[in-house]
């Protein structure tokens, strides 16, 4: 299961990461979020040790969502060295997400 990133563990997991980080901003009521959720889960396993793949529930973690100015969900951010290197807004094929992450490795 992808890491649940929240306001409490964000700095520890994301802030100190030496590998790229993928953050899926989602909500339980969001249909397109449910469409890409299996992709995020698969990527968590496929990129284990190479990248951190996590999920941020925007309803439960407004601080993180506000920090990154998330206005639409799903939004998937690709972070490298603590900065946004790429992003995907809206549902998309899994390969799109994989290609964006591979570009950071």
Q: Explain this structure to me?
A:
- It is a single chain.
- This protein has helices spanning 10-15, 31-46, 62-67, 94-102; strands at 3-4, 21-26, 52-57, 75-80, 83-89.
- The protein is an alpha/beta fold and 105 residues long.
- It has a single domain, classed as 3-Layer(aba) Sandwich (Glutaredoxin), CATH 3.40.30.10.
- A 5-stranded mixed β-sheet has the order 1-3-2-4-5.
- α2 links the parallel β2 (21-26) and β3 (52-57).
Number of DSSP-assigned strands? 5
For this entry, what is the oligomeric state of its chains?
single chain
Name of the CATH architecture:
3-Layer(aba) Sandwich
Give the helix tally: 4
Task: Estimate the mean pLDDT confidence.
Answer: 96
| CATH homology group | Glutaredoxin
Strand content: 25-35%
CATH class: Alpha Beta
Helices and strands, in order, run as EHEHEHEEH
Write the layout of secondary structure elements.
Layout: E1 3-4, H1 10-15, E2 21-26, H2 31-46, E3 52-57, H3 62-67, E4 75-80, E5 83-89, H4 94-102
Parallel strand pairs: 1-3, 2-3
Antiparallel strand pairs: 2-4, 4-5
List its salient traits.
alpha/beta; 35% helix; Glutaredoxin; 5-stranded mixed beta sheet; 105 residues; single chain
How would you summarize this macromolecular structure in one to three sentences?
The protein is an alpha/beta fold. It has helices at residues 10-15, 31-46, 62-67, 94-102, and strands at 3-4, 21-26, 52-57, 75-80, 83-89.
């Amino acid at each position: 299961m992808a890491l649940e990133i929240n306001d409490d563990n964000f700095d520890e997991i994301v802030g100190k990461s030496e590998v790229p980080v993928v953050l899926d901003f989602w909500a339980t009521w969001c249909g397109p979020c449910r469409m890409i959720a299996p992709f995020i889960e698969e990527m968590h396993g496929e990129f284990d040790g190479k990248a951190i793949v996590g999920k941020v529930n925007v309803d439960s973690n407004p601080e993180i969502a506000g920090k990154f100015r998330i206005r639409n969900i799903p939004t998937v951010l690709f972070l490298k060295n603590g900065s946004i290197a790429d992003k995907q807004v809206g549902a998309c094929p899994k390969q799109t997400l994989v290609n964006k992450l591979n570009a950071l490795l």
